[in-house]
Amino acid sequence: MGCFVKLSSVAVAACAAFSTLAAAAVPAQAQTQTWTVTAGVCGDWSGTWAMQHVGSGHWIGTEVSTVKSNHCSSTRIGTQLTATVDFGTYSNSTWTATDTNTANGSHCTYKGTVNGHNSATGTYTCGVNGVLSKITIVSPVAFFN
Fold first, then answer.
1. Could you tell me the CA-to-CA distances from 17 to 6, 7, 117 in Å, in that order?
2. What is the pLDDT along the chain (145 residues), one digit of tens a residue?
3. I need a labelling partner for 82 at 20 to 30 A (CA). Which of 4, 5, 28, 98 fits?
4. Is the dihedral angle over the CA atoms 51, 56, 57, 60 positive or is it negative?
């Protein structure tokens, strides 16, 4: 972006100020944080949520989870699920999340408690008649930033 004005000390100062403001208006790109997730009635699912901080206590990202055992699940070991996750924290140390675009057509709703700056536990259900399951999330950064 350039300033085309008749050169004077006032015009040069105005052009420099405008250029600085225009550059400051460009938002910084959010960094992706990888959260480790264990889920399922017996913890049969394990995976990651690649999350970006998009506002105060608000994160969005992509989930990739894989069945690691069949303790309580009849789902074949190695089955993988991908989803888009919308996660929010609240001032009373609670959190909620939703899978908003799962690859297999189901949608899950989550809720729980933040147990420290970077650890959260809770429960979730998927679909209309979903079984109540457990989830544990560990983040390399604080949820409340």
1. 16, 15, 40
2. 444 344 444 444 444 443 443 444 444 556 899 999 999 999 999 999 999 999 988 999 999 999 999 888 788 999 998 999 999 999 889 999 998 766 667 789 999 999 988 999 999 998 778 889 999 999 998 877 5
3. 28
4. negative
Over its C-alpha atoms, the chain yields an Rg (Å, rounded) of 22
Tokens of 48: 């990651």
E strand intervals along 20-141: 32-40, 45-55, 58-67, 80-89, 94-99, 108-114, 119-126, 133-138
Q: Which residues contact 125 (CB under 8 A, 6 or more apart)?
A: 108, 109, 131, 132, 133
